[in-house]
């Protein structure tokens, strides 16, 4: 009877597997933090938190405001210059000149260089705003993808720790079971030694997995600053199938029209071309229309004129050459961006299609069959028809299937996000709420 109870306990311990950590419910965290006992952490939650007030996103948004302010400056009209001057008046303490009437002039000068310089300046500023807005979209995607990678690392570490805990507990129960069998002379002592060695190794693997989980959380927490101190919530990921992968032609077409990196590169090319026009028109730096009044004694006369700087020496030759070189550099960078994005779109589309197809082709009872295989191996060993090695292999295979399946689900989600990034979508577009822990049901 005692042997039967011990064998049942061993079977239950192995069946626990990845669920070993689910039963523990941590205490409530400080105010303002996510409560692990109440709220599980989903990938959608991480992305939303990373994009809501992320420093990198806010920095890019501030650069958009700076570009908009520069555009306002470029659009502003120049202020007129008011001048008042007096002639033929004595110095303080001196006598007035004889035979010369005092002359007083009041006139305004309206700068006119904006008539031919303002248009390219405004065009350059508007393109810089577009480039900053595209950089903001790129920053959002950078943060979303980096947060997803950090999420994946924690998810993998969480699954590895859960598997290590389940394996260690199962081996501990099996060691107790074998100890009883050895004492009864029903099992060779070599099996007991092997189980204890495997149990100790599983204990070390558990410690390493726990340390890796702590390091992984250190990578993820900057994206979710509202998280309190450990213990942290479980990570969950969608298992339900997502929408089908769009065709490559549709992704390429959308990418050419909306991909942030391409939009930013094109805007910088347009801004550099406008900069060349600005520098060329700066050859005439000053031009103004003068109008006013001149009073000579009791008489008033009109002042009218045009002031113009004569470009006898081309003082802006160096700036023109600089602007043309920067235009060439921007055009080459655009060409390189188009090549790289085209290659990335093709590769990411292939990865997304392959991952989705492989997951869809898997049997829905994959995990159940792996668990059944372990149960059969354990039952055979209990009846003396199987070896200890078969039990250990089946247990490790179950843990590896769970981890691999979870990584595949995360890879599908990453491929979907990368495909959206390559095609110019929004990071929060299409995020679903159907989730399971570590890729399990």
Chart the SSEs and their pairings.
Blueprint: H1 2-16, E1 41-42, H2 43-52, H3 55-75, E2 81-87, E3 103-111, H4 114-183, H5 189-220, E4 235-237, H6 248-258, H7 260-281, E5 287-296, E6 299-308, H8 317-361, H9 366-382, H10 388-423, E7 436-437
Helix pairs in contact: 1-4, 1-9, 2-4, 3-4, 4-5, 4-7, 4-10, 6-8, 7-8, 8-10, 9-10
Model description:
By secondary structure, this protein is an alpha+beta fold. The protein has a single domain (2-20, 35-437), classed as Outer membrane efflux proteins (OEP) (Up-down Bundle), CATH 1.20.1600.10. 63% of the residues lie in helices and 10% in strands. A hairpin with a 2-residue loop joins strand 5 and strand 6. Helix 3 runs antiparallel to helix 4 (114-183), helix 4 (114-183) packs antiparallel against helix 10 (388-423) and helix 8 packs across helix 10. The model is unreliable at 1-38 and 432-441 (pLDDT under 50).
